[in-house]
Amino acid sequence: MNCAYCYKSDTKLSQCSKCHRSSYCTQNCQKLHWNTHKPVCNDENLIEWPPALVEEFLELFIEHLDVHKIIYLIDRSAAQKFKEKTHGGGCGHKHHSIELNENTTSLERLVSEVTSRSYLYTLIPSFINQTSEIFEKIKIKGKQDGLVWDTETEKKVLEQVFDEAISRRLVTEVNGKYRKEEESFSKQPMLLAYPSGYKENVNTELNILGIDTIQGLMENDLAYVDDFFDYDTAHGLFAEAETLDFDGRFEEIMQQKIKNIRTDKMLWVKKDIIDAAVGGKHESPLHLTLSYCKNLKKISDVYFSLPFELNKKTKLGLQIIDSMCLDCFSQGTFHKPHSDSGFGKEDTGCKITCIYVISNSSNNIIEINNIPMTLVNNRFIILKSRKCTISIPPVSEKIFLCYYYILGPCDPYQ
Prior knowledge:
Elements: E1 14-15, E2 23-24, H1 27-32, H2 34-41, H3 51-64, H4 67-74, H5 76-85, H6 106-114, H7 117-144, H8 151-186, H9 211-220, E3 222-225, H10 231-246, E4 251-252, H11 254-258, E5 265-270, H12 271-278, H13 285-290, H14 294-313, E6 323-329, E7 335-338, E8 350-359, E9 365-368, E10 371-374, E11 380-384, E12 390-392, E13 399-407
Helix pairs in contact: 2-7, 3-7, 4-5, 4-8, 6-8, 7-8, 10-14, 12-14
C-alpha cells in the first residue's frame, strides 16, 4: 500500500480516520491531499483519482466551462450586461473566468467562486460520476433507436454531454449557495412577525382576512376569497404584469424545465425594491419598469402584512417575509403536482402559501390536493404548504399568479 499523496510505500502508513480508505505516511501528506480527498471521503461510492490525473482533468474542466453561459442559465438580463462589459458584447469566445472589480455584480462574484480552481477541484469526483451516468443512458438510448455508435459518434456525444453537464452542475452550485443564504436568513428568530411590531400604512388594523377565511385555513388547510381587491386594482394588474413580461423580466427555471416539471417563468420582487421604484427611485432598469407597477405594489404591501395578521389571530408562529413571486403562464405552459414544503428532509420551512390570480379569462384551473378550482381574476387563495399539493395543468390562455410563501415551524402535533 502507498501513501495517497506522495506514494511512499517503505514506511508506516496511517488510515484516514473517517473513511479508512486512504492511507498517509505523515500528517502533512494528509493535509496536502485533503482538497482531493474531501469529496471522496464523504461519499463511499466515489473513486479517488491520483493527484496528477485530477490536475489533468481540472485543466480539461476549465477549458470547457463558459461563465457567460452559466450566468445566462440563471439570469438572461445579467448575462447580457456581462457580455456588454466584456469586449463590448461582441466577443464570441468562451470566458473561463471572471475578473473581479468594483463593478462586479453579486451574481458574477458567486459564479466566480464556483468556477475557481479550488472549488472545481472539489467537484471533480462527483461530476465524473454523474456525467458518466448521463453518457451511458444516452448511449443505451441511442443504440435502442438504431443510431450507429462508432468511435467518432461516441466522441462527439461525450463532448456535448461534457459541455452541457459542466454548465448545469455549476448552475446548481450557484443556486445551492443562494438557497443556503436564504435558509440562514429565514431561521433568524428575530424575524418572527409580532403584531405589535407592524408599523406599515397598509392593513393597519391587521384585519384583511375575515373569520371564515381564517377558519377555513385552520380547519380545512385551504380557503379562498373572491373580489380581493377593488375593481380598478384588479383590472390594472394584468397590464402591469404584461409590461414586466414584455421587458423580459421573467426567467425560466431551467433545471425543472429540462426535467419536464414546469415550463412557466418567474420573477421575484422584493418589497424594498418596488417601494423605492414606485416612490421615484430609478437606479436600475428594473426600478424604472417597476415604477409603473402601482397596483403590484398594493399586492406587495398586503402580502407583507399577512404574517402579522395571521400571528395576531392564530398561533401559527409565522416569520416576516419581504419577497413575493410573480409567475407567468403562457398558453400551454404548466407546473406538475408539487408541495411547497413537507416534513423531515422535505421541509423547506414554508408554512403558508398565498396565491393571487391575475387573469383576463376564467378558462384555467389550479388543482389543490387533486381537486380542481377555477382561476378567476381577483381571487385570493391561501393554504397550508405542508398539507397541500398544487398543480397547474397546461393553461389555455395566458395567466399570472402572484405567490407569497410564509415561513414558519411545523405544528406541534405534527
